[in-house]
Amino acid sequence: MSTRQILVIDDEANVREVVQACLRDLGGWDVLEAASGREGLIKAAEEQPDAIVLDLMMPGMDGFAVLRQLQLNPMVQSIPVVVLTAKTYLIERRQFAQFGVVEAIAKPFNPVMLPIQIAKALGWEQKK
Hints:
The protein has 5 helices and 5 strands, in the order βαβαβαβαβα. By secondary structure, it is α/β, with parallel strands linked by helices. The model has no long low-confidence stretch (mean pLDDT 90).
């Protein structure tokens, strides 16, 4: 079985770095990074990752705009999204499915628990 690939879209470099290290080192997954919503949409279409971890609050194209664009593109609309944000109250649970969001994880997050939370949300078995 090939290694799962996750795209992390977050405008904060330090957050991307921590998330990448957690998902790579603890989750055993390949991690792609995007520093903006537009870059994330391009990488999602080009790389077809198994999942996307998305920040909602970004300058320019925010996470909501990214979610809408993902749903409009048949090439990427089935990619599950985990929202990682300080503003978890902005999305109601019933809105998750329409945006392809499988889970919302609050910032600040527990780095050790992050891959476990993501694996559980995606229905992936965690590497031992």
